[in-house]
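Running this now, will post back.
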Amino acid sequence: MSRPEKLGALLDSGWRPRSVHAELRANLIERLRAGDPVFPGIVGFDETVVPQLQNAILSGHSVLLLGLRGQAKTRLARSLVSLLDEWIPAIDGSPLNEDPTAPVTVPSIERVKREGNDLAIRWIHRSERYHEKLATPDVTVADLVGDVDPIKAATRRLTFADPEVIHFGLLPRSNRGIFAVNELPDLQARIQVALLNVLEEGDVQIRGFPIRMPLDVFMVFTANPEDYTNRGAIITPLRDRIASQILTHYPRTLAEAQAITDQEAGTTRVGVEVHIPTPIREAIELVAFQARKSEFVDQASGVSARLSIALLENVISNAERRAHLAGVQDATARPSDLFTAIPAISGKVELVYDGEKEGLAAVSRMLVGKALAEAFELHFPGAYDDEDVGDAAPKKASVYDAVLSWFRKGQDLTLDDHADDSEHLTRLARVTGLAAFVKKHTKPRDDAELASLMELVLEGLHQGSLLSRDDDDNGRVYGDMLAQMAKSLSR
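Update: finished.
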C-alpha cells in the first residue's frame, strides 16, 4: 500500500492498527500456509524449538529461550523481526513509535487533538522495531523503563510535575516492536521487578508520576541454565509471568552441525583455494561432539557452536599459510591442521578438576585425536577389523597388516606442517600398501587428497594404539608401537 504522510490520508487509505502480537501471529500464519521458511538460517531446530516458538507466537505469549551458550538463542530472537509488518505508521516526532490512532503519551495525545487529520506521519521499517539489551549487574530501572531528566527540565524550563521531563528507557522506546533481554539472570532482582507490570498488565510506571502508560511490546528473553547458580537467578514472579519457556539444544546430527558451521564460518580465502576432504571436514565438527561428552569438560558450561566455526576457519588458514609458503594457489587440509588449530579450541571449553590436572592443551589435543579417530572409522575399517585371507587360512589377518608390517621392520615416518602437497605424498608413499588401501576404501579427487587421507589412516592407527607417534616442534614421527614401548622400557 502507499504510505500516507498525514493522519487523514492514513485513515482514508483503509489502514487499521493491530497489536504486535496480532501482527506476528498473522504473518506467521501466512508463512505456514504458504509453506515458506519461518526462520531462515536457523538449523537443527525444525522438529524441536521452532514448533514451540511458533506455538508461543500463535498464543500471544512472551518467550524465554533457555539453553547453554552457542545454541543460537540470540539469533533466534533476532529472526522474529522478519515476522513483523514491513512498514507501520507512527506519529512523527514521537520517541515511542506511537500509533497515530491510539497515542499513549500526554504530548502526543494533545498533538492529535490539536492537529487532527493534519498530524504528520512517519513510517517505520521492521528493522527499527527490534531492541536488545544485554543484562548486566549495572543496568538500572532508568535504563530499562525511564526516569525524570533534570537536564531536560532545566533547559526547557519545565517543572518536575510536567510529564515532558520524563526520559524514556529502552523498553518504552520498543513500543510496537520486539524487546529482547539477553542473559536475564544477570539482571539484579530489584531490576527484574520493573518488568512485572509490562508482562502482566502491559504497561509501565515512571517514578514520580501517577501515570499508567500502556505499551504494545513482544517480550523475548534468553538465559543460560549455568547462570542460575553461578551469577544470578530469574525471580519467581517474573518467571511465572513469562508465558512460554523454550529449551534450546546443540545440533544433534553431524549434518546439522556442518550446516551451521558452513553458514557462519568465514571460509573464503583470496588468492588460495583450500579444499577440505570429507573425513577432515567431519573431524572438525566431531571435535565439538567429543567435547560435549568428555569427562574432562564441564558439561554444565556447554561447548558453543563457535568452537567448530573457529576451528574450521583456523584449519583453512593453516592450509592457506602452507600454500603461500610454497607459492601455489591450491591447498588441501590435512589431519595435522587440526592440531595446529588448538588455539581455536582451548578458549572455548571449561574444564572440570580432572581436566585442569591434564592441562588445557593436552585435553584439546585429546579431543582432536578422538575426533580424527571417529572420522577415520566412518570411512575406513576399524583398527582391529579382520579380513579373509583365503578358505585354507586357519585365521584372519588385520586389514592393516601390510601397513603395519612396514613399521615393524624398524622404519618410521616423519611428517611436518611445512611440506607442500607433492612432498607430503612422497613421504607417505614410502609406507608399503598405504596408498592402495586408501584408494580401495575411498575415491580421492587428486593426489593432495590422497595424501591427506593416507595421513588420516596413520593417525587412526595411532589412536587405536597400533602405531606410536612422537611430536616435537619439527613435526610428527609415526613408528611401531611395540618398538616404541621397548624403547621406553629400556630407558
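The domain at 254-379 is CATH 1.10.8.80 (Helicase, Ruva Protein; domain 3). More later if anyone needs it.
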